[in-house]
């Protein structure tokens, strides 16, 4: 098996380091492929995404590296694009420039509220999750988690991502406080999203970042969900969601786990 990673940030968004540093480190690890997936530009002030004015420079730099290293490693130009209803729900201005993209939900809207009133479910701060849950959903965790998965399903159906990013990440800051992943209503939402993934033909990532950042004790999606996904024949790719060159091979036992549960073919080229 040739290791690879298609979920890679850098200095262009909220990561650290030059693209070339990632390529050189990937080569030293014996990678066959590396895909760059900066956070796509979003139309509001923020500190995490690629700036719209840097999009062309980013694309050009990946294309140049692709040429330069073409005999040594397969490089791919991608983005991790946030699906936000009414704000960023049409990716057609971005996709034609790319080799692939990851579709992810980090900011959740409430259909009954203003579109820019958003619940941020990611990041390092649990209090931000708790504050957003109150502000956007008046503390109604069922409504909030339902909205997270409906938004994910709409993204899958409407934008057809190549890879679905960390599709249960809403559990990270929950940390067992508001609901259990064993609750039947939660399992039903997960199963419904897996139906959407299956119908779209997308690849689902197994994201290891929660484990090596010590923010969560399982992959996104979890081991239990992965066992179910195997029965539904969902193709999978292992993603480290690197924000530093040194994160590139933090696979955290994902390949071994997938083999244990019977996944014979893990995607290693896109
Ligand atoms: Zn993400
Ligand atoms: Zn990411």
Count of domain modules? 1
Number of strands: 9
Poorly predicted runs: none
Structural class determined from secondary elements: alpha/beta
Helix proportion of residues, in percent?
Answer: 25-40%
Q: State the helix count.
A: 8
Strand order of the largest sheet: 1-2-3-4-7-8-9
User: How many angstroms does the end-to-end distance come to?
Assistant: 15 Å
Predict the CATH topology. Answer: TIM Barrel
Corresponding CATH architecture: Alpha-Beta Barrel
Description:
The chain has helices at residues 19-28, 55-68, 126-137, 141-159, 184-200, 209-212, 223-231, 254-260, and strands spanning 4-5, 33-39, 74-82, 100-104, 107-109, 118-120, 163-164, 203-207, 236-239. It is α/β, with parallel strands linked by helices and 270 residues long. The protein has a single domain, classed as Metal-dependent hydrolases (TIM Barrel, Alpha-Beta Barrel), CATH 3.20.20.140. It is globular. Helices cover 34% and strands 15% of the residues. The longest helix has 19 residues, at 141-159. The structure holds zinc ion (ZN) (2 copies). The site of one zinc ion (ZN) has 5 residues, from loops.
């Amino acid at each position: 098996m040739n290791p690879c990673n298609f979920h890679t940030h850098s200095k262009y968004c909220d990561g650290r380091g030059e693209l070339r540093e990632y390529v050189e480190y990937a080569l030293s690890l014996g990678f066959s492929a590396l895909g760059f997936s900066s956070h796509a530009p979003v139309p509001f002030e923020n500190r995490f995404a690629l700036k719209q004015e840097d999009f062309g420079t980013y694309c050009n730099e990946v294309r140049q590296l692709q040429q330069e290293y073409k005999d040594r490693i397969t490089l791919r130009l991608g983005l991790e694009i946030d699906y936000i209803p009414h704000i960023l729900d049409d990716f057609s201005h971005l996709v034609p420039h790319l080799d692939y993209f990851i579709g992810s939900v980090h900011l959740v809207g409430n259909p009954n509220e203003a579109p820019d009133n958003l619940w941020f479910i990611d990041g390092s701060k649990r209090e931000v999750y708790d504050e957003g849950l109150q502000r956007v959903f008046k503390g109604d965790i069922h409504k909030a988690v339902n909205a997270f998965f409906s938004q994910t399903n709409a993204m899958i159906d409407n934008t057809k991502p190549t890879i679905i990013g960390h599709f249960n990440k809403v559990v990270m800051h929950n940390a067992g406080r508001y609901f259990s992943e064993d609750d039947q209503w939660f399992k039903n939402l997960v199963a419904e999203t897996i139906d959407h993934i299956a119908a779209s033909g997308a690849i689902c990532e197994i994201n290891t970042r929660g484990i090596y950042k010590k923010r969560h004790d399982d992959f996104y999606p979890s081991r239990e969900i992965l066992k179910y996904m195997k029965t539904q024949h969902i193709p999978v790719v292992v993603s480290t969601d690197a924000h530093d060159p040194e994160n590139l091979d933090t696979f955290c036992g994902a390949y071994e786990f997938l083999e244990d549960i019977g996944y014979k073919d893990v995607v290693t080229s896109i």
